[in-house]
Amino acid sequence: MKFIPVKTSSMRPPKDNIYNLIDMSLPKLAEGDVIFITSKIVSIHQGRCVAKSKLKNQKLKLIRQEADYTLPHRTVNGSDIILTIKDFTLIPSAGIDESNANGYIILWPKSPNKIARDICLYLKKKYKVKNLAVIITDSHTTPLRWGVSGISIGFFGLEPLYDYRGKKDIFGRELKFTQTNIVDNLSGMAGLLMGEGNERKPIIILRSAKFINFTNKPTHKKLAIEPKKDLYYPLLKIFKPNKEKSRLE
To answer: Which residues pair with 81 in a beta bridge?
Structure first.
């Protein structure tokens, strides 16, 4: 398989058109391509930007409003941080970001699985392909590890998991629980190639990945685990729900 970074012009906050960017930047797509798009340019497309000059001292309030679940805020290396759960993802500050934002705070996209579907259908029609998928990515931190890596926050067009249950390991033992998370593993590589600075490569094309199972059905619910069934529930249960947005009960 091959990862192809796509260099683009800049999307300009507070609102810009991602379809114009796609039309100007993407090469001809092929059957079986998977398109990774960083969440930031999706958010700018949706106008999910707040001017820092207008926000004043209300950032923590905004984070709590955006999050599904939160912990109390704490100061880490001089910055106020709130650990949150949003859209079935454990992430600081509900994904709100100030980098490459030109004086704005950029929120996470609204309904990322839906916008992934919209873009996927647009690209299928434009390039006359049947098998194609779109994954919306963001940078993500791993507890007890320095550095960020890519993670999916929305996707459409592919099965997110490869299921080993019922199959045998190399010594003939039947696997009972193992599934491989395809969308996040691939998003990690896409995030590495996108970069975190001024690279201007917010789109990555994955080509010739033979293990991808394409579909026209929404599959994002297959990736999410009900918190009480999660291995990490003893940690997750201490988060407090946003009563207006609770979706993980």
So the answer is: 74
How much is the average pLDDT of 150-178?
87
| Closest among 227, 234, 213 to 85, alpha carbons compared | 227
- What are phi and psi for residue 181, nearest 5 degrees? -85, 100
pLDDT, residue 244, reads 58
Domain locations in the chain as residue ranges: 2-241
* Domain 2-241 coded CATH 3.40.50.620: no
pTM over 0.90: yes
Cβ-contact 34, 221 below 8 angstroms: no
Yes or no: say if 155 and 190 are a contact pair by the CB < 8 Å rule: no
Q: Say what the pLDDT of residue 164 is.
A: 78
Give the contacts of 242 (CB within 8 A, at least 6 positions apart).
64, 65, 67, 68, 69, 70
**From residue 95, how far is each of 63, 110, 181, 228 by CA, in Å?**
9, 12, 21, 23
CB of 25 within 8 A of CB of 71? no
pLDDT of residue 249: 35
